[in-house]
Design a protein that fits this description.
With about 400 residues, the chain is α/β, with parallel strands linked by helices. It has 2 domains: about 170 residues, Rossmann fold; about 200 residues, 3-Layer(aba) Sandwich (Rossmann fold). The chain is about 35% helix and about 25% strand. It has an 8-stranded mixed β-sheet with strand order 12-11-8-13-16-17-18-19, with helices on both faces. Strand 18 and strand 19 form a beta hairpin. It is globular, with a radius of gyration of 23 Å. The protein starts with 7 loop residues before the first strand and ends with a helix. The mean pLDDT is about 85.
């Protein structure tokens, strides 16, 4: 049976030009068997009429906090008790802030406080508004409280700019909600994944980095999501879009990645450190472009924070999985890292070989844990990610049982 059949769903619509997609979203949800009630903010009614949403939902649209047609004039309580899931799409920057700080000055924000149903939001806003530090901070806080952030995605925007801020398409949102009701071995678990490279600036135009594409980390994030996990992906600079339903935190340097990881780690059940974090950074970063005046240039480097070792050595660490990219003596280096960093598992792969590893679609993995190991021969990174997640889940459940 379809996972949305007979599900009682509130669709909240806030003030965004993306509200024009909401009518199609209602139609798609009803096609999947969902029972949809629409709640609009006053700003939302300026972009799309309640009559349109009433026509496609087949139900009265709710707008006012003090609703004389509701039982005892407490529409927010009535709706909050009825709902099995709340989806806010589009969710404006303003409404993200309301949710973060617990404001309750209209029907939608009030019922979000009153409901025990899971809440998902699909942000839609100008790309600069999405990138604003306060918006990212609000999303992080909401994520930590268990709200799911669906999107946004990248593309052209109504304002004429291009960037991340577009609401996910209705079909993508339907798939995200279907995943919400699917059971899996990681249902209710929080998985934190790092991916991609970091960059350590030398001057305003040069940096130290590596060849990591981020593909493996992104594939593991998608696999963890499919197993029912709530996934946060801390990503260095890559040219990939995160899977729908994964909360992505973009970082630049090793220090940035360290700080992001430590923000989320207290509520994390499984930590998978896939990122190729720079081991060293310049002691000093030049404020102006260095000129090639000398025949030789010497850089003084210092160690970057060891994210993996820090997490694994916390008083109550999550199940911690490390990655080791090596050019030789793969098993020896992997076993050493497993032991000295006190990891639960380590995944090792050879790099510098044509067709696998960095910048490649394929890979081959050697997986080690205390008392065991397994080899995963060359396959696409997506296939390997699914196989790896099955092994991680098996070990995680055994350790935590």
């Amino acid at each position: 049976m379809n996972t949305l059949t007979h599900k009682k769903m509130i669709l909240g619509i806030t003030g965004s030009i993306a509200a024009y997609k909401s009518a199609d979203l209602v139609r798609r949800l009803r096609e999947q068997g969902a029972d949809v009630r629409v709640v609009m903010t006053a700003a939302a009614t300026k972009f799309i009429t309640p009559l349109t949403l009433q026509a496609v939902s087949g139900q009265r649209v709710h707008i006012h906090l003090l609703d004389v047609h509701a039982e005892a004039a407490m529409g927010h309580i009535e709706l909050a008790r009825w709902a099995e899931v709340v989806l806010i799409a589009p969710c404006s920057a303003d409404f993200l802030a309301k949710l973060t700080y617990g404001q309750a000055d209209d029907l939608l924000s009030t019922l979000c406080l009153a409901t025990t149903a899971p809440i998902s939001v699909a942000p839609a806003m100008n790309q600069q508004m999405w990138q604003a530090p306060i918006t990212q901070e609000n999303c992080q806080r909401l994520q930590q409280r268990g709200l799911k952030i669906l999107g946004p995605t990248s593309g052209s925007q109504a304002c004429g700019e291009t960037g991340i801020g577009r609401m996910l398409d209705p079909l993508e949102l339907v798939h995200c909600l279907q995943d919400l009701f699917q059971s899996g071995p990681l249902q209710g678990k929080k998985v934190l994944i790092t991916a991609g490279p970091t960059r350590e600036d030398i001057d305003p135009v040069r940096f130290i980095s590596n060849r990591s594409s981020g593909r493996m980390g992104y594939a593991i994030a998608e696999a963890a999501l499919a197993q029912g996990a709530q996934v946060t992906l801390v990503s260095g600079p890559v040219s990939l879009s995160p899977p729908s339903g994964v909360h992505k935190v973009s970082v630049y340097s090793a220090q940035d990645m360290y700080e992001a990881v430590m923000t989320y780690i207290p509520t994390t059940d499984i930590f998978i450190a896939v990122a190729a974090v720079a081991d060293y950074r310049p002691v000093q970063q030049a404020t102006q472009k260095l000129k090639k005046n000398e025949a030789h240039l010497q850089l003084n480097l210092e160690r970057t924070p060891d994210i993996l070792a820090t997490v694994a050595n916390l008083p109550t660490p999550p199940f911690t999985v490390g990655f080791a990219a090596e050019t030789h003596h793969l098993a020896d280096y992997a076993h050493s890292k497993l032991k000295h960093k006190k990891l639960d598992m380590i995944v090792a792969n050879l790099v510098g070989i044509e067709g696998i590893g960095f910048e490649s679609e394929d890979n081959a993995l050697s997986i080690f844990w205390n008392g065991g190991s397994i080899e995963l021969p060359r396959k696409s990174k997506k296939e390997l990610a699914n196989q790896l997640l099955e092994i991680i889940i098996e070990r995680f459940l055994r350790v935590c049982s």
